[in-house]
Amino acid sequence: MQHRIITFSKNVFLPLTTVCRNRCGYCCFRTPVGNGCLMAQEEVETTLRHGAAMGCTEALFTFGERPEEEPGFKEYLRPLGYTTILDYCEAMCRKSIEYGVLPHTNAGILTFEEMEHLRSVNASMGLMLETTARIPAHATSKGKEPEVRLAMMEDAGKLKIPFTTGLLLGIGETMADREESLCAIRDIHRRYHHIQECIIQNFCPKPGTPMANQPVPTTDEICKTIRMAREILPRDIAIQIPPNLIDASLLIPCGVEDLGGVSPLTIDYVNPEHPWPAFEELKIIAGEAELRERLCIYPQYIERGWYHPDLQSLINRLAQTVKLRSS
Ligand code: SF4
After folding, report:
1. Burial tier of 245 (Cβ tally within 10 Å: 0-12, 13-18, 19+)
2. CA–CA separation, 74 and 87 (whole Å)
3. Pocket test for ligand 1, best of 22, 61, 271 (most atoms within 8 A of CB)
4. Domain range holding 247?
5. From the CA of 31, how far away is ligand 1's center (Å)?
6. What residue's CA is closest to ligand 1, atom 7?
7. How many CA atoms are closer than 13 Å to the CA of 202, on its beta-carbon side?
8. Closest CA to ligand 1's atom 1
9. Distance between CA atoms of 85 and 105, rounded to whole angstroms?
10. 22 C-alpha vs ligand 1 centroid, how far in Å?
11. Confidence check: pLDDT of 313 > 90
12. 129 Cα–ligand 1 center, Å
């Protein structure tokens, strides 16, 4: 029998702001501008310090898209000494590097220049494609236009940024839409070879959101999508599922290779009602397969040197650390 390896990354989740210019029909993350809409620097640093002490290697900076477009947001940001959330993000990425944790930023839609700038302080970056279909849930979210998202993924490729993307299932798309989305990811990867993983994530409806009663994708349907992804995507793109949102042990046989970022410290701020499995549970999920820790930059991109030279010593040190922990 073929020896299978299932990977994961040990991370901390840092939602720098919950303010976002978009209005997705399924969102439970976004909040209006107001007290508590920004994560304070002290909290970021405390999380990074504790995360580093617990052996976390990845700082996931995920937050609302272009919050400055929301009236009043800048007044909350200014006292921290920044004019844009991306300036704040860059500064916090630098802190993360100081604490010995590799930053991975998903800030929604970014321009080529913004990504080029953030690349120097990020080992990898990400943007969920979600779907190439035009769906009602995205009707009031300009950042969710498929062309805009595909263009950003293409720019990331031109910049040689190891990249994470994926599909969000159950937001009003069809199986044919999923196939089209996967083909779009494949085509971009064939041009730039930068997509390291594709997340197949099931949407979990939340009370109080416009899509609270949306029917959820069944395990069979998710398995079928994973199999389709494995057929369509090149072998060097890992298929990832979030082990806190679904019984991952049922999906490993469908072709899953990665369990994504799992945190011993922070919650999943997008799905706060779903706790992360503990490390011992991950081993059970992996079953016969070998569970192996990885960094947020996959080994093939470390070998190719697809990172800013300033990150080299930290990447090398942490690569050695996870190797020792997995042996
Ligand atoms: S982009 Fe993300 S944070 Fe913004 S409204 Fe949509 S789901 Fe919510």
Report:
1. middle
2. 12
3. 22
4. 5-326
5. 10
6. 27
7. 25
8. 22
9. 12
10. 6
11. yes
12. 13
Strand, helix or coil for residue 156: helix
User: Rounded to an integer, what is the distance from CA 120 to the centroid of its chain?
Assistant: 18
**What percent of the chain is helix, strand and coil (3-state, nearest 5)?**
40, 15, 40
What pLDDT does 129 receive?
Answer: 98
64-101 confidence digits (pLDDT tens): 999 999 999 999 999 999 999 999 999 999 999 999 99
Testing ligand 1's pocket by substitution, the residue of 19, 30, 110 carrying the most ligand atoms inside 8 A of its CB is 30
Q: What is the number of other CB atoms lying within 10 angstroms of the CB of residue 260?
A: 23
Mutate to test the pocket of ligand 1, among 141, 145, 203, 270 (most ligand atoms within 8 A of CB): 141
Q: Give tens-digit pLDDT for 46-56.
A: 999 999 999 99
For ligand 1, atom 6, name the residue with the nearest CA: 24
DSSP 206: -
Here the tokens at position 188 are 């971009």
Domain count, the chain: 1
Please name which of 276, 277, 287, 231 lies closest in space to residue 255, comparing C-alpha atoms.
231
Alpha carbons 318 and 294: distance in angstroms, whole number: 9
How far apart, in whole angstroms, are the C-alpha atoms of residue 134 and residue 131? 8
Q: How far is CA 185 from the centre of its chain?
A: 15
Beta bridge partners of residue 264, listed in sequence order: none
Q: Which two tokens stand for residue 168?
A: 């969000």
* Cα–Cα dist 292/7, whole Å: 5
In angstroms, rounded to a whole number, what is the distance separating the alpha carbons of residues 267 and 150?
A: 29
Tokens of 182: 């996967």
Evaluate whether 306 touches 158 at the Cβ level (below 8 Å). Answer: no
Dmax (CA) of the chain: 60
SS3 176: helix
Given the CA of residue 21, which atom of ligand 1 is nearest to it? 4
Q: Which pLDDT value is given to residue 4?
A: 94
Q: What is the CATH number of the domain that holds 148?
A: 3.20.20.70
Q: CA 260, 265, 269: angle at the middle one, nearest 5?
A: 65
**Which token pair is 218?**
């069944």
